[in-house]
């Protein structure tokens, strides 16, 4: 399943300008269908929208777009299940990935103020919210600049077959 730009923006809580800028600067690219010229529409996967929400949360906490770019680069090749195991912790400058409570405790032990973003919570919120919005079947775009199936779409496709 894929989500058009207006849905991705609304669900992620961002503006069209932000999404367009992030796509043009390769921060978060649509993994299902990229835009090609006037009139074509980008199509975002569930994982793409999840990453958009993560970026928005990081921006809201005051982290620079440059440091968010570094964090997103490390998230890019991961599946939804991998992301669901992460807690992102930041000291306001650097973003750290933590997979266990011990890793979070180690960061806190330095005595520096940090804040965390629990990706499982964002994933749960997104799953509940996005289900009420229309999505588009990927098969409709088989010859139309489709990049590939995301993990969730691939599972849904297997279930329906």
From TrEMBL:
InterPro entries: DNA-bd_dom_put_sf, MerR-type_HTH_dom, MerR_fam. One of its GO terms (molecular function) is DNA binding. SMART domains: HTH_MERR (SM00422). SUPFAM superfamilies: Putative DNA-binding domain. This is MerR family transcriptional regulator. PROSITE patterns: HTH_MERR_2. Residues 1-74 form the HTH merR-type domain. Keywords: DNA-binding. Pfam families: MerR_1 (PF13411).
């Amino acid at each position: 399943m894929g989500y058009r730009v207006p849905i991705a923006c609304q669900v992620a809580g961002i503006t069209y300008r932000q999404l367009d800028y992030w796509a043009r600067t390769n921060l978060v690219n649509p993994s299902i269908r990229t835009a090609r010229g006037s009139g074509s529409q980008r199509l975002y996967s569930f994982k793409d929208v999840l990453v958009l929400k993560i970026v928005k949360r990081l921006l809201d906490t005051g982290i620079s777009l440059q440091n968010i770019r570094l964090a997103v680069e490390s998230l890019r090749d991961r599946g939804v299940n991998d992301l669901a195991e992460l807690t992102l912790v930041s000291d306001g400058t650097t973003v750290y990935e933590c997979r266990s409570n011990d890793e979070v405790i180690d960061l806190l032990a330095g005595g520096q103020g940090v804040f965390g973003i629990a990706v499982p919570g964002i994933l749960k919120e997104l799953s509940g919210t996005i289900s009420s919005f229309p999505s588009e079947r990927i098969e409709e775009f088989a010859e139309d600049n489709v990049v590939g199936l995301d993990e969730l779409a691939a599972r849904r496709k297997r279930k329906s077959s």
